[in-house]
Amino acid sequence: MLGNEEQERNKLESSNNSLTITDNRTGLTYALPIVDGTVNALLFKNITIPGQLEGIRIFDPAYQNTAVVRSSICYIDGEKGVLEYRGYPIEQLAEKSTFLEVAYLLIYGDLPDADQLKDWSDQVMRHTFVHVNFNELMKSFNYDAHPMGMFISSLAVMSTFHPEANPSLVDNDIFIKDEKIRNKQFKRILGKVTTIAANAYRHRIGRPFNLPQNHMTYTENFLYMMDRLAEKDYRPNQRLSRILDILFILHADHELNCSTAAMRHIGSSLVDPYSACAGAASALYGPLHGGANEAVLRMLEEIKDPSNVSEFLIQFYVIRLVFDIVGREPLIDVAVELERQALEDDYFVSRKLYPNVDFYSGLIYKAMGFPTDFFPVLFAIPRVAGWLAHWKESLSDPQSKIWRPRQIYSGEKTRDYVEINKRIPTGINLTKSDGHPYNKRSYVATFSK
Fold first, then answer.
1. Are 206 and 139 in contact (CB under 8 A)?
2. In the chain, where are the structural domains located?
3. Dihedral over Cα of 248, 252, 254, 259: its sign
4. Rounded distance, CA 302 to CA 372, Å?
5. What are phi and psi of 395, to 5 degrees?
6. Quick one: average pLDDT of 136-156?
7. Does the domain made of 74-287+382-396 have the CATH classification 3.40.50.2300?
8. Residues 6 or more apart whose Cβ sits within 8 Å of residue 389
9. 220 or 303, higher pLDDT
10. How far apart are CA 362 and CA 295, in angstroms?
11. Is CB count within 10 Å lower at the N or C end of the chain?
12. Alpha carbon 222 to its chain's center
């Protein structure tokens, strides 16, 4: 920590590439370099007053204006409608690419050549099979378990089936040291998440699981595992498979959102990628994130009529592509009216509250016949590619450390323990039934403990 005299000797002159700060407590002036539009928060630790050991901390609830990593994976400008993966516009990728090709791009940084893509796709598809005991575990879920709950739990369980990929059992730095083992996890996880998702769907509707068909494309196989009953040579509709592939491309990565930040946060402990993906999926499950698809569809079903939409916000997307195949979804009329009114409403326009992808994605999934509670799973499958890309990037980042956000303590000062007979009631009222393992009838029964 710099002393006051040394601080004065080392004061930086302000320039076009620095931020000048005057500490009114001491009168000292500091010039902090601006790099890529940011200031290094650690430099604020040098801003102290006599007798103070620690300098200033930056208070930023929910990381609203804090950059915590440097990343070359995804670029988003919501106001301009820009989404790019590794510099490639999403429009070009959606038109010309496939999801597995985009997954390769996100993870490895460049588009594969023909041989690389074939090898990559073949290996991912070979990893769609899961252990028979894994299937038995999935069958043990309750009949009405939410598909996303099954998906999250199964991701976490997957780590127990691959102990050779568990840093706690092998080597703390296994994924940093061994590129081969790291690469295998990408193929293994991308391959198996479609099987997990399809199994969750089948379990929910009481049907037996289908074995993967690794000669099909990624989305064809997924739809096959979900929908095939006993038909011979069953093949999903090719156009629907392609539309689902496009949706997977669009959802593969959206920069450092809540779930991706969770993936990096958990991964910074060097835990296995299955556990980190389960944590990221848990973040995605929330109604303010991936659960928005499900929540918005339920909202639309409640509105029902286009005349009741003035307080809702949406964005039009690619749903008309589906109508030609499976028929028109009536809720599209509500969606269109929602978007029109939202884009004309001063409340939304003045606050730059523009429509987002979640709403129309949900309409597309609904039009394709997916149940509403399955939407978060459909969002999670492609996002795994983005999570793994960020996980890989973090492993090679020389500035990477275990994430440890700081807090501002606002609790009680140091106080002495109070004996129970001298404590003053706090006003917290716990009813007799809170936490009780029995039902109401048990309260009036007599029994021995």
1. no
2. 1-67, 74-287+382-396
3. positive
4. 13
5. -65, -30
6. 96
7. no
8. 73, 106, 107, 253
9. 220
10. 9
11. C
12. 21
